Amino acid sequence: MTVVYVLLPLALLLALGFVGMFIWATRDGQFDDVRTPQLRVLFDDDPVTQTETSGEGSSGAKKERS
Amino acid sequence: MGFGGTQTSDRKTEVFCAHCGLPVPPGLVTSDGSPSFCCSGCKTVYGVIRSAGFDEFYALKAIDDDRLAAPANPKLASFGEFDEPDFVRMHTREGEGARRIDLYLEGVHCAACVWLVEKLPEMVEGVISVRLDFGRSVATVLYDPQAVELSRVARALDRIGYTPHPFRSSERRALARKEERKLLIRLGVAGAAAGNVMLLAIAMYAGAGEDPAVAQLFRWISLLITVPTVLWSGRTFFSGALAGLRAKTLHMDLPVSLAILGATASSAVHTALGQGHVYFDSVAMLMFLLLAARWAQVRALRSASDASELLFSLAPSKARLLGEDETSREVPVESIVLGQRVEVRAGESIPVDGVVEQGLSRVDNALLTGESVPVEVGEGAEVHAGANNVSARLVVRVTATGEHTRVGRLLAAVEEAQRRKAPIVRLADRVASYFVLGVLLMSGVTAAVWWGEGSQIVVERVVAMLVVTCPCALGLATPLALINALGAAARNGIFVKGPDTVEALAHIRHVMLDKTGTLTQGRVALTSFDGDAGLLESVAALEAQSSHLIARAVEEATPPGAAGRHDVQDVEEVAGGGLRGAVDGTPLVLGTAAFLRASGVDVSSTWESRMAQAAERGETPVLVASDGHVAALAAFGDPLREDSQEAVGALGRLGLSLGILSGDHPRVVQHVARALSIDGAVAQGGVSPELKLATVEKMTAEGRQTAMIGDGVNDAGALAAARVGIAVRGGAEVSLATADVFLTRPGLMPAVHLIRGCRATLRVVYRNLGISLIYNAVGATLAVAGFINPLAAAVLMPLSSLTVVLSSALARPFPRPPSAAPAIRPVTRKQEVPA
pTM score, two decimals? Predict the structure, then answer.
């Protein structure tokens, strides 16, 4: 059972580390909006729909100046 | 692309808008296979999105949310005020070498919206990044002021269907956000402590405690974790209990604090002595559960107040300032000073109080005074901020701005009314006061029973009593039921802002209703067309030449495009009289009896009496003469909302007594009361905002639990003074600010659902309180008998909490939200999510 004298403080340190990370994340505002990130994950980085309208899309008003 | 053009549903062939997916009116369906649109707004937006190469938007659209789609409605304005130095100073801030602005976007409703909005940097040079908070529809835009004007950013957002509004974030909001984060950290720390202490406790109960040295180590470590957590995370409860004591009331936090402090102190002493029971696991778990409930409640309430504040962003923030050279430029309202002149175009709302210098128009005061019929204003007439300029351009010299306007002064009265309102004692706090007495009594009994066994046993038994009766479930009983109700209400489009509101609503016995905009639609519409129905199209064709308010009502009553099919000539409009002209060669005269006679038409007494009847109903009669003979009588009025009849009936069946308080003419009010079978004696017309407030305050003072339902600025005082104020959709922002509840779906039925739901919720609260009290009674009996040890406490307490959680979660206080018609979501999730 002597191993608990090493393991327990170690486990507690680990837990403390996670609590610290949680506090940092909260202060950073990461929990302020919990709805958008779950949607953002669905977007492809590279749009795949350019094939159909590629001519129009690239030559058109890609950078719109209104 | 995903969906667009013609799609057929199972039932009938219906065409859906290529942009928003809503059904397209038959007149607008294209026949050549090109995409159809429900409105020109959607068409514009579709064109912009396609030409920018963002077609993926339409593929992503089907990953939808529970929000309903809405047709795009770009304002196509110049957003010139966004470039004013005052505007930039007020709404943007420095950040990372660029400027940052928060914009509230109209029309955000699906995942594709997030995608499209965040693609803005690819569309407009100079925009560095955009992050959209989907839940609140607020986009944070980072842009380089050297490379792009803010107005261009705003225009680009508008063109893709999201009209931007500067988001007026207040200090108060920032503070609330900080508070919420703090509470979340407290909760997280309590959770981590509870988890770790629980692990140690389980090991102890499982047998690790048999070795005295290990047991002592575990105790010390538990103490090390629990005590700082109690002192920091538990502060919320201690300060709440102290505040309650200072106010000489027994708050729910008091028994909680007693249990936490008592158990912690005795456990610490036992740890130091190396003998006796320790309750660190129960203490940590108790704090975690209570903080979790509290945090969820704060969050549910915040989302409601967020939603109401977002609506303020929609209020007009700009005015067209007229310079010396008669050119106008858009500036923020806040930068206008007295004596300047502003231009108000037709259809815009008036930004300031002032005197008309130029122009002749009608002004719609529905939100300000409750009058359903717009009044004529000319040179020298006074106009007020918040009113709507209906028919023609006005130039107004500013006499008051901001809080000095009539609306601003009314707001001061509203704040006064809110201050006077007595706080209600919550049910849970009433129970808590008895509970504290009960616990103290039971502790006394326990001490008496074990008195002979020596002081150590007595202390042990009393602490066991405190721990086992710790009102964990009691503390959860109300918040959990409330969170469930608030969430369900929000899904139904009902936002409840105050924590006491649900309880107050369940006790409501009287409901006072506003008329204009609440029971009625608050706009002029064709209510009846008595005579040759075939003439209506000709009338519409003629009225299309006029900018009069009635012309718009006729246009709405006829199918789109119908008026354009007729040949209209020789149109002549006489202010205050009517309109004449020739439609398809037939002379047509519209207007008052006098105007018709002046035009050479003979008006018989039958028609005259019909006109009188319409006027008696509070409507505006317009005679129609075709080819020299009176052919029809059109009546215009403010029609009832579709569900008013049903809602009023349902409110009556709930046992509520109803009354009407309206600023409109008593005759009109009586007619509406009769139509809704409300007793005419309780339907008051011609009531000033101050009188509304006084009436409701008097009812409340007499102890009658009164709810006020209204929409206008004139209702704001009454909404604030009532036990519960309910603002309906489309109301003035002042009324939204003061009401405890606001409805985002049209009509009154949501209010009925709300009252029913609140009553159901209160029943759940009672049930929860009952369950937790039974657990406490059992626990207390066991404690008196000496059967409670830390293990029994650790089992009994979570069990009681779990029962309460289940009891709350199973309750269904509101009807399921109306599911969207298949037309709105033509493609299912499974098919559409790109692989």
Answer: 0.72
- Who wins on pLDDT, B365 or B768? B768
Q: Is A15 exposed, middle or buried (0-12, 13-18, 19+ CB in 10 A)?
A: middle
Q: Which of B514, B638, B711, B715 is catalytic?
A: B514
Q: What phi and psi, each to the nearest 5 degrees, are found at residue B520?
A: -110, 175
* B609 and B650 co-located in one domain: no
pLDDT single digits (tens) B2-48: 444 444 444 446 777 777 777 777 777 777 777 888 777 788 888 88
Cα–Cα distance measured from residue B134 to residue B131, given in angstroms and rounded to the nearest whole number: 9
Strand pairing class (B657-661; B683-684)? parallel
What's the half-sphere exposure (Cβ side, CA atoms, 13 Å) at B415? 7
Q: Which one, of B231, B732, B707, B224, lies nearest residue B498 by Cα?
A: B707
> Could you tell me whether strands B127-133 and B375-377 are parallel, antiparallel, or unpaired per DSSP bridges?
unpaired
Residues B293 and B322 in one domain: no
Distances (CA, A) of B541 to B546, B592, B621, B777: 10, 19, 19, 78
HSE, side-chain direction, 13 A CA sphere, residue B167:
26
Helix (H) or strand (E) holding B38: none
Please say if B64 is a catalytic residue.
no
Average of per-residue pLDDT across A16-29 = 93
Q: Which of B637, B662, B681 is the last residue of a domain?
A: B637
Q: What is the pLDDT of residues B702-715, one digit of tens each?
A: 888 899 998 877 88
Q: Is B712 left (phi over 0), alpha (psi -120 to 50) or beta?
A: beta
Q: End-to-end CA distance of chain B, in Å? A: 15
- Does the structure's ipTM exceed the value 0.95? no
Residue B31 domain flag = no
User: Residues of A near B (CB-CB distance < 8 A)?
Assistant: 1, 4-5, 8, 11-12, 15, 18-19, 22-23, 26-27, 29, 31-36, 39-40, 42-44, 47-50, 52-54, 56-58, 60-66
Question: Which of B3, B48, B49, B51 would best serve as a mutation to test chain A binding (most A beta carbons within 10 A)?
Answer: B51
Tell me the residue type at B365: N
Residues of chain B with Cβ-Cβ distance to A63 below 8 Å are 122-125
Give A28's contacts (C-beta < 8 A, 6+ positions apart). Answer: none
What range does the domain containing B114 cover? 41-169
